[in-house]
Specification:
Jelly Rolls; 37 strands; glycosidase; Beta-galactosidase; TIM Barrel; GH; alpha+beta
Length: about 675
């Protein structure tokens, strides 16, 4: 019996570029299953990061984007979400359930653009790179360094076959029509061999839809490949930016892969609605009309962001600009986007809806969705009210855990002893995670043998740490003596002659997600700890607090006595951070709605949890003053809030129905 050798089927890309700047699409239709007809097409896309919104509302956000007139959803894929430990892949539950997200896009009859680079930027923790890469002291990310490319290929060997199955050209069973190679690489490097290596991996693992790169206008030469579609990212200055893209690559269809609808915020900075200051809905409308209605060119566009969402947990990143000092990003990724953090339509939403309606009125043949029906598609504007929000009475703090109790709680901390330390966060070995060090949260260094350094000199002594990231809190004999800011890269402080125990708490405020310093993103104490400039302190007990699990199972709280007469007094946490507990009841399930955690001036800085879910960081310096709580995280009956607070505390917290942002 002869066995016939079957060659792999060659799938034609769904999107087709010609040399006259036109874009066409091959569709599976009931009367054209071989996709022989090319239809004119315009990508009208919006960015929706599935990892910044609860899976329960993925469908709602997708449908709202479709109702604005879009035909495509664009998303990044963060490597650190899907491979949190080397060789441990997560793709099947919660925020990691990528396939379910892609299936939803298909069910809503939309297309998908996927940006699966190992590095995604996105104002996300280390630009999506997994922190365990930093266990390699020679690591050079976004390069041909073998330690990086080998790890990337192993990740791709799992991720890319999943994406391959969701390509549209697989007989119309998927939605993906394009893949980005790297991400704004021209702003970082110009190694074409590295870009070509990524392209080769895409092909090796079965990706055969259209490939593209995206860069700022000044970086096009550095970040592109000759045989790959080059696209551009910008905000404002429409005509100039488009002309720069044409000057660089004159023959291809014009695509804005990121048209920035708003901007992001730094802790301690001003609230931003545009990359260069205020960007109003009226200004946005004029610019969008110039792109879709007034330009002599055919232009496709992706709105970054259409829906921003939330940096839940410890997922927000940081920058070394606008100043050279480290600047961490806030928890909210609202971005002043067309859909707000809670999914409500904003003025910019209605701008897009109006302009696209005018565009479709001029070009009805360009209304194209992902389905096989022959009947021509239509677009009409639909109304929708903003979602209900809930406000609750003040919630009393019931109990607390002292810092010492926290360190002795196996649910909250991991512990190790080192004699040749200190170790940075990435070097610490976690017993349950043999392939990854600590990644996020806090790292605590304690030296319990300081008395010997004072046997001869009963005077204050100087401690110097030349490199530390990020902010630090120093305790001597269990009492706070020194605090530093996250912008302080090195610290010095004096310790008294009666010092027995020295504890240094370091908070990771988010690794750098953009710029030339990506390789220098390690956290914790990064240098020797010197006493009086000469004596090296090497023996440390190290605790890590990542708050990965178990927050809801904590019991045996110390009762907090409420002083109603002094309810507004601020209590300094002189003996280190504390974990606070505030239970409350929701009697009627109909009163469950999105809400916002408001912490008044009594609270300074920390991390908040609702029913064990990490909502993210809070900080009284703003501009973000409240934390978003989706209704899906609340229950009829018993609920609880927990706060890990670093500096000061109050007696109450509050849930309000309006987000508060410093202007």
């Amino acid at each position: 019996m002869l066995l016939k050798h079957v060659l792999p089927e060659q799938y034609q890309p769904t999107l087709v570029l010609d040399d006259e700047r036109h874009l066409s699409i091959r569709l599976f239709k009931d009367n054209d299953q071989r996709r022989e007809k090319l239809r004119p097409f315009r990508i009208l896309s919006g960015s929706l990061h599935y990892f910044r919104v609860l899976p329960q509302v993925w469908s709602d956000r997708i449908e709202e984007m479709k109702r604005a007139g879009l035909n495509t959803i664009e998303t990044y894929i963060p490597w650190n979400l899907h491979e949190p430990e080397r060789g441990v892949f997560k793709f099947n539950e919660g925020l990691t359930d990528l396939s379910s997200f892609l299936k939803l896009v298909h069910q809503h009859e939309m297309f998908t653009i996927v940006r699966p680079s190992g590095y995604i930027c996105a104002e996300y923790e280390w630009g999506g790179l997994p922190s365990w890469l930093l266990q390699d002291n020679q690591m050079r990310v976004r390069s041909t360094y073998s330690g990086f490319l080998d790890a990337l290929k192993k990740y791709y060997s799992v991720l890319l076959p999943i994406l391959s199955e969701h390509q549209y050209n697989r007989h119309g069973q998927g939605s993906i029509v394009a893949f980005q190679i790297e991400n704004e690489y021209g702003s970082y490097g110009e190694d074409k061999e590295y870009l070509q290596a990524i392209r080769s991996m895409y092909i090796e693992y079965g990706l055969d839809e259209l490939f593209f790169t995206s860069d700022g206008a000044r970086d096009l030469t550095r970040g592109t490949l000759d045989n790959v579609w080059a696209t551009i990212n910008f905000q404002r200055h429409v005509k100039e930016s488009i002309e720069q893209l044409i000057a660089f690559r004159s023959h291809n269809h014009l695509m804005i892969s990121e048209y920035w609808t708003g901007w992001f915020d730094y802790w301690g900075g001003r609230h931003q609605t545009g990359s260069s200051g205020v960007y109003s809905a009226d200004e946005f409308e004029k610019d969008l009309e110039d792109i879709l209605l007034n330009s002599k060119y055919e232009i496709s566009i992706n709105f970054y962001m259409f829906f921003g969402g939330t940096n839940f947990g410890f997922t927000s990143g940081g920058h070394h600009f606008p100043s050279k000092k480290y600047s961490p990003l806030v928890t909210s990724y609202d971005y002043d986007a067309p859909l707000s953090e809670s999914g409500d339509r904003t003025d910019k939403y209605f701008v897009i809806q109006r302009v696209i309606k005018k565009f479709y009125d001029l070009h009805p043949h360009l209304i194209v969705y992902n389905h096989q029906r022959i009947k021509e598609d239509k677009f009409k504007i639909t109304e929708r009210k903003s979602s209900k929000k809930a406000a609750f009475n003040r919630i009393k703090i019931y109990g607390y855990k002292t810092f010492e109790q926290i360190l002795h709680d196996d649910i909250l901390t991991n512990k190790c002893e080192v004699k040749d330390g200190p170790l940075n966060m990435e070097q610490v070995k976690i017993p349950a995670r043999s392939n990854a060090g600590a990644s996020q949260g806090f790292i605590v260094y304690t030296n319990n043998n300081m008395e010997k350094f004072f046997e001869e000199k009963h005077v204050e002594q100087r401690v110097t740490i030349k490199s530390i990231a990020d902010n630090a809190l120093v305790l001597v004999n269990g009492k706070v003596i020194y605090k530093s800011l996250c912008s302080d890269n090195s610290i010095q402080f004096n310790i008294p002659p009666d010092t027995k125990n020295l504890t240094i708490i370091v908070e990771n405020m988010g690794r750098i997600n953009f710029g030339p310093t990506l390789d220098h993103s390690r956290k914790g104490i990064l240098s020797k700890v010197l006493l009086n400039g000469t004596i090296e302190l090497q023996a440390w007990t190290i605790h890590t607090l990542e708050f990965h699990k178990g927050m809801s199972s904590i019991t045996d709280w110390n009762r907090l006595t409420i002083d109603e007469k002094n309810a507004t007094n601020i209590h300094d946490l002189n003996y280190g951070p504390q974990l606070f507990y505030a239970p409350f009841h929701i009697e009627n399930e109909h009163s469950i709605a999105d809400t916002y955690l408001s912490l008044d001036s009594q609270w300074t800085k920390g991390v908040a949890f609702i029913n064990g879910f990490n909502l993210g960081r809070y900080w009284s310096i703003g501009p973000q003053r409240t934390l978003y709580i989706p209704k899906e995280l609340l229950f009829k009956g018993f609920n609880h809030i927990q706060l890990f607070e670093l500096y000061t505390s109050g007696q109450y917290v509050q849930l309000v129905d309006t987000p508060l942002i410093d202007s």
